[in-house]
Amino acid sequence: MLKRPRRNRKSAAIRDLVQQTIVTTDDFIFPLFLLEGKNLKVEVESMPGIFRLSLDQMLLEIEQCLKLGIKAFDVFPVVDDKHKDKEATQSHNPDFFYLKALETIKATFPEACIMTDVAMDPYSSDGHDGLVDEDGNILNDETLEILGAMALAQAETGIDIIGPSDMMDGRVEYIRDVLDDNGYEDVSIMSYTAKYASAFYGPFRDALDSAPKSGDKKSYQMNPANQREAIIEADLDEEEGADFLMVKPALAYLDVIKLLNDNYDLPITAYNVSGEYAMLKAAGLKGWLDYDQAMRETLLSIKRAGADIILTYHAKEFALLNK
Ligand code: PBG
């Protein structure tokens, strides 16, 4: 035999030499769940190892993660029902605990990259990403105004990246204009470009208690059966001024990650979502999978498919494993 591919696998040293894909903590954005109050650390039942944290606890967590080489964080608010209404009013109230906390986080760790989520669902009594009319329709253009106010309020806290996850049409341009008109031209937009209507968001909605009160998200999130729509969305996001394109979820959509990586020059992010974390965790806890190996393989596959950046709940565990 002239060709023996096994020669390039014969020792760890050679395997390391020929390894194509490398995942490091430089690639990660770590999602965090913020609780109102003090000294609170409440585990998410469907995401063992992931906690909702009050600000004091979150500062400790970020400090630890920075030491481990994780430099970017996406902070989501857990909003009590009493603060929710149809218009998501608290999302742009500068005195609301979430926006106050972002200011403190950014002031405490100016070197960290802090990302926020723009969508109405955590603050909405309807549990939808947009405004809901009497017939249950999700109103697009009326929602943009609220998203713009939310993005501006978040930018005012000093955060680095705005992440519109709402899937309303035209929101990237709308938000870009609002930010620029107010002097925030350096705040980036990481658009949830190809966000599918997925069953894998369940544990996240448990964490935030943000599930839709009625209906589903299929009139704004994408149909899992479709690939071409990802191109339509990516073209729009690029034209509208997005700095990063995101595919979400990651694992069941590796083809979409590759499609965007092959066709666009903007950095590609993949969101390794809550349900994907929960699956590995559950199997690991049952002893059905080697969790650490499965986690490494999973993250590698997302990077190999073409993601430059991975939003992942595994970030800290991965960093601890590679310390
Ligand atoms: C809010 C939002 C969701 C996620 C991120 N931002 C939930 C949803 O759209 O229903 C999901 C993240 C995850 O599952 O880890 N729009």
Q: What is the gist of this entry?
A:
The chain has 323 residues and is an alpha/beta fold.
How would a textbook summarize the main sheet? 8 strands, parallel, barrel
N to C succession of SSEs: HEEEHEHEEEHEHEHHEHEHHEH
Q: What ligands are attached or bound here? A: ligand PBG
- pLDDT < 50 runs, ≥5 residues: none
Computed over alpha carbons, the radius of gyration is 20 Å
Strand order of the largest sheet: 1-4-5-8-9-10-11-12
Helix content: 25-40%
What is the 3D form? globular
How many runs of DSSP E, i.e. beta strands? 12
Number of helices: 11
What is the typical, i.e. mean, pLDDT?
97
The secondary structure category is: alpha/beta
What distance lies between the first and last C-alpha atoms, to the nearest angstrom? 41 Å
Beta-strand fraction estimate:
15-25%
Please tell me about this protein's structure:
There is one protein chain. The protein has eleven helices and twelve strands. It has 323 residues and is an alpha/beta fold. α9 (274-285) packs antiparallel against α10. The protein is globular. The model has no long low-confidence stretch (mean pLDDT 97). It binds ligand PBG. Ligand PBG binds at residues 117, 119, 121, 129, 165, 201, 204-205, 273-274.
Summary keywords:
323 residues; alpha/beta; 8-stranded parallel β-barrel; two-stranded antiparallel sheet; 11 helices; 12 strands; 38% helix; 18% strand; binds ligand PBG
Topology overview:
Blueprint: H1 12-18, E1 28-35, E2 41-43, E3 51-54, H2 55-67, E4 72-77, H3 97-108, E5 113-118, E6 131-132, E7 138-139, H4 140-155, E8 161-164, H5 171-181, E9 188-195, H6 202-208, H7 228-239, E10 244-248, H8 254-263, E11 268-272, H9 274-285, H10 291-305, E12 309-312, H11 315-321
Parallel strand pairs: 1-3, 1-4, 1-12, 4-5, 5-8, 8-9, 9-10, 10-11, 11-12
Antiparallel strand pairs: 2-3, 6-7
The site of ligand PBG has 10 residues, from helix 6.
